[in-house]
Amino acid sequence: MEILDFNTVKKHIDEWDPIDLLAFCPNDEYDGESRMIVDSFRKENDLGKLIYNIFRESFGESTFRKSLEECNQVAQKIMKSIKDLKYKIR
Description:
Layout: H1 6-16, H2 31-40, H3 47-59, H4 68-89
């Protein structure tokens, strides 16, 4: 099982900016959700679904309008970064 790194998750969530807030909000706007993703991943192995559920709970259905497929794409980017980082450390 992969272990998620907060900085890697934060980087990809911030780049994604699913609610389009970072243009006018502090750069820590999604830190809470990023931390929940890292902490919850130990229990829920489906990262895309986890991202989807956390953002729906945090922002509500009317504000968070990204699809599960979009969340899966972000999840794939996060997992690729984690694997690339592990490869560099070896």
